[in-house]
Design goal:
This protein is α+β, with helices and mostly antiparallel strands. It has four helices and 15 strands. The structure holds magnesium ion (2 copies). The site of one magnesium ion has 5 residues, from strand 4 and strand 5.
Length: 250
């Protein structure tokens, strides 16, 4: 069942989303060659706690950290580790969740580490473009498949692989609510209505679509070891423009 959020619930989600955005703001500043993914996790934990929120990921199905850190060919769900140190030319996807007032904000971004190749730069630009193409479709009267199709169109145009096994999701009282949102068209005609909140999160690859889960039972990587990018915002359908919840409040 898809829950529609009240004004008050949306207000709390906006607050949770602001805290998530504060973490991303700091990640953008501190990510540089030589930093470990564990240090990034410590920074994120501190910011979430200082803002009287709960790190949603910590303990979620046993996940041991406050953020997911996925480097290069890692797609999602990478576990922060003091031995994982990023270097010049890498890309790193940071996925952040914060719960405030019982409501969840969920947002991911892929950051360059120092100077990256032109090819990687384009991967980041187009995956972010796919996210915003999807967000644009978050309007009352559209259907779920409009979001999926918009994401797929950008990926196909740029000949990027689309991760099939993972996708977006309803978000709110818990991190993963109905509906599931594919990043490619499956013809889902579920009608979008005011108050529906969805985490839209394209995961696009420089190579093929296929991914595999590592022995740690978390880290998802591309099978062909080609780099992957991940951009995500939690968004709510209003009676007007789509409202992005996971950005800084003015
Ligand atoms: Mg996320
Ligand atoms: Mg998500």
């Amino acid at each position: 069942m898809i829950q529609r959020k009240s004004r008050d619930e949306i207000k709390r989600m906006r607050h949770a989303g602001h805290i998530v955005a504060l973490v991303h703001q700091e990640m953008k500043k501190v990510i540089e060659p030589g930093i470990s993914t564990k240090e990034l996790d410590n920074i994120a934990f501190k910011i979430i706690k200082e803002n009287r929120a709960v790190p949603t990921f910590l303990g979620y199905n046993g996940f041991p950290a406050s953020i997911c850190t996925s480097v290069n060919e890692q797609v999602v769900h990478g576990i922060p580790d003091e031995k994982c140190i990023v270097k010049e030319g890498d890309i790193i996807s940071i996925d952040v969740g914060a719960t405030y007032g019982g409501m969840v904000g969920d947002s991911a971004w892929t950051y360059p580490v120092g100077k990256i190749s032109h090819e990687l730069e384009k991967l980041l630009i187009y995956t972010e473009e796919a996210l915003f193409a999807g967000i644009k479709q978050m309007r009352a009267g559209n259907v779920l498949d409009d979001i999926s199709s918009a994401i797929e169109a950008v990926a196909n145009r740029e000949k990027l692989g689309i991760v099939r096994q993972y996708g977006g999701h309803g978000v709110g009282h818990v991190m993963h609510e109905d509906p599931f949102l594919f990043n490619y068209s499956v013809g889902d005609k579920t009608l979008l209505k005011q108050g529906m909140s969805i985490a839209i999160e394209p995961m696009l690859n420089l190579g093929g679509d296929d991914v595999v889960v590592a022995e740690d039972n978390w880290t998802v990587s591309t099978v062909d070891k080609k780099p992957s990018a991940h951009f995500e915002h939690s968004v709510v359908v209003t009676d007007d423009e789509p409202l992005i919840l996971t950005k800084l409040m003015p």
